[in-house]
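As described in the Methods, two query proteins were run sequentially through the folding procedure within a single session, without resetting any intermediate state between them. The first query and its resulting structure tokens are shown here.
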Amino acid sequence: MEAIRHMLGFYRQIRASGCPVEEDGDMLLFQWGVYNWGHGETYSYDITRQFILSDGDGEISQLSLTVHFSVTDLLRSLKEGNRWCGSPDEADEFESFIRDHEATRVIETVQPLRTTLAWSRT
């Protein structure tokens, strides 16, 4: 999926200032499943980049790229879950996991409802 490739490229090429990879300060999270984020139930296929500042307060922020789909019986039958990527050195294996994942194979055959890109502090 093109959205995943773009986020992985961003992660591989650009380091976040003040968020050391070796301290889990700059990680990727792939997550999938049926959720209701206040706008009705959708199947969410998401990759999020999480930043944790090392300046003492440990402020966390996230940049999330989410593709939403209408919930079907097939999508609902997929167990929701997630997987972390802890460093750019793991990005190739992480990309393979996503590419080969059952959720990826299914959503590639379905028309998305919408795609969102959101940055938030947690």
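Immediately afterward, the second query was submitted; its sequence and tokens are:
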Amino acid sequence: MVIMAGGRGTRFWPVSTTRRPKQFLDLLGELTMLQLTAERARSLCGPEDVYVVAGADHAGLVSQQLPWLPRANLLCEPVGRNTAACIAWSSAVLSHRGRSGSPMLVIPSDHRVEDTEGFAATVRTALPAAMDGWLTTIGIPPDRPATGYGYLRRGRSIEEGVWQVETFREKPDLRTAREYLASGDYLWNAGMFLWRVDAILESLRRHLPTVLRSAEGLASETSPSLEDYGGIRSISIDYGVMERAERVAMVEAGFDWDDVGDWIAARRVGAGRGRTMEVESGDCTVWNPGRLTVLLGVESLSVVETDRATLVMSDRYAQKLKEVVARLEREEPDLV
């Protein structure tokens, strides 16, 4: 199993920073997002079969939070190069270590999945198709017309509980998302995959040959140089492989899921901090540990305070927080 623990979590600023991105934060309770993900991994395999791909600057955090992880299973990227590079490199490492015919489950480190048994059952449903050479993804049954996710259209049945992916759809507008939800044919694309190591390597060889060649050149390394890794093309596995491959299957998730992608999602899963008093207010997220926050006559806001910065943000502008972080990188780099 490969846990992708890169990413900066900019939509959770100012709590998430480059020094400690959201996957290393305890947004949902006592354990961090990475630790919760790793616990799900350990429900399916032993620690020797768990791999984590993370930024080199965060290697210490990974080792601190997952002390049981074998050091050789921590793959440190000197720079993020998107999911295709991450998957190509980790697949090449597994193949180099004699695991080319083994199943490989790839999951992000920052998703909320509370039903560990349902997660394990879903993976077991997908396993036969994956071992038969299908590139298998886990689709999330939509419960709202979300415009922030890509969608998978369910095609013909391959076997019990497994369907061919007929088409990938990009993030839709609200009207289209409502049509997808009403049809019952579409599932959210959550970026969780199961395949045989040699199957994904062959697909990478066919669709992203230069990415794979670079990754295979680093198959014996756990901490490549910036010069070697930074030259790999930056592209997502969805764009580079999944949308172009012929044998792509999906299973329906048998568990509740949330990507906890921003402060609005944090509200959805109850991830606030601190005491609040709401007077004629509602639908707000508050992160202000140890203090009382009074909300008077406001709604659809996020109020987030740390010892260095305060964010007050309307829900309508949640997706623009990345732009704010980019500006701070230029003007106030110590704050990000």
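The two ends are 31 Å apart (CA to CA). We note this only descriptively and draw no conclusion about the first query from it.
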